[in-house]
Amino acid sequence: MKSREGLIRAKRFKVEEKRRQVGQIESMIAEFERMTKDLDDQVTAEQERSGIHDADHFAYPTFAKAAIQRRDNLIASISELRERLNLAEGECSEAIEELAKYQAIAERDQERHADRAPGEAA
């Protein structure tokens, strides 16, 4: 019985760890999306300031080109993070199902133990 309790504790820990991973990835995605929007705003402001909107123009602002490159890199990172998020969510769901299975087994064993008469042998 004690070993099962330890196993359930380990499964709970695993579930919490998977939930933390999901939360961290979601936070990173949100932060990268915010940074992407900020870069878009900076590019727009720089284009308005210079009056040049064509990135192929010879006088296009260097700052705007660099900001566009950083934004594109962030967008690629967001895409990779979304893939990792999908995997992490799947692993979290599996861990939750596994925990539920072990908890159900433990509850069933407790009910069986409680149903036995005090003098009955196990």
3D structure, described in words:
The chain has helices spanning about 1-50, 60-115. Helix 1 (about 1-50) packs antiparallel against helix 2 (about 60-115). The model has no long low-confidence stretch (mean pLDDT about 90). With about 120 residues, it is mainly α.
Task: Record keyword descriptors for this entry.
mainly alpha, 122 residues, rod-shaped
The outline comes out as rod-shaped
Average pLDDT: 92
Number of beta strands: 0
Helix and strand composition category:
mainly alpha
Major sheet: size, sense and barrel closure?
A: none
**Portion of residues in helices?**
over 70%
End-to-end separation: 13 Å
Radius of gyration: 27 Å
Secondary-structure element order, N to C = HH
**Tally of individual helices:** 2
Strand content: under 5%
**Regions with pLDDT < 50 over 5+ consecutive residues?**
none
